[in-house]
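[agent] plan:
  1. take the single chain provided in the ticket
  2. run structure prediction with default settings
  3. attach structure tokens to the ticket
  4. add a short note for the reviewer (M.T.)
[agent] executing step 1
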Amino acid sequence: MSVFGQLRDGYGWSVDCTPNSELITTEKTRLVGAIFNAATLDTNFWTKSESTGTVTQSSSELILTSGTANAHYAKVYSVRRANWVTGTSNKFRTQMRVASSDNDVTVRFGVGYGGTMPTITDGAYFKFVGSTVSVNTMANTSETSVASGSFNGQYSAPTLTNNNTYEILYTLGKVYFLINNVLIHTATFSTTHWTSNTTNFHAFADVVNTGDSSAIAHTFRMINICRLGKYSTAPTYRHITTATTTICKYGGGMLHRVCVNNPTNNAITIYDDIAATLGKEVAIIDPDTSNTPFQMEYGLPFNNGLTIVTAGTPDLTVVYE
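[agent] step 2 finished; step 3 output follows
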């Protein structure tokens, strides 16, 4: 490169250095997604929803098969969400193929969120209607769709019945769509956000019958979301000394540890939510009265928020990000 130029990669993205002329690099961390092992869907990591359509697994591949009547579907999404950390970007990646195309069958896959999953209200995803390919973003149920004829990148229609690699990289201002390592479209959002409710998404895929059709199978070899950056950032803390409900954070993050500075025989309950919601407990700590402080290491991500409920006269420090 010339002294007047800027180092860029194959996608045209610039490469940065520190003021001390050190190249800035980053590591990739998988946030959600687990291997499709053998013939059993691992419900610790994936949730399925079916209406005549089926979600099955065979030979270490996930298979979503449409039903044969209007509105029948098969859907799957990751149990956890991929938390967003400011100053990084996240990347969705899958390898998939379709058995055949039918204009009465729609398949989507990418990142998504909805208050009542598997219904998606926000996200970014590829969509096939028959053999027609589009890239899409959704904010509060409002979809912005760009068809293949209007892509602003380098697009050569893939053979959908072959296994292809599909990727979505997303930041706060742009969403990038790639097929087989080629940037096909960049969606830019200069004045409005492309998502309304969250930037913490599930990985998802669904197939919906929009009219009478034969059953169509869509096969996925892998689905995941990675953060292009470290898993942990510099944490913060909250010191709690009363019997109270403390909302430590709204939205996703990481619970590092709980330091019990003055153990008393009173429960400390940790919730993955912005309230003391039954069923969202992370841990219930009931320490014996002691003069010996102790700490409990967790290193666990939370998706919805972090709430601590204390009783009695505690003295604890919660370390999280």
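[agent] step 4 note for reviewer: The mean pLDDT is 92.
[agent] ticket updated
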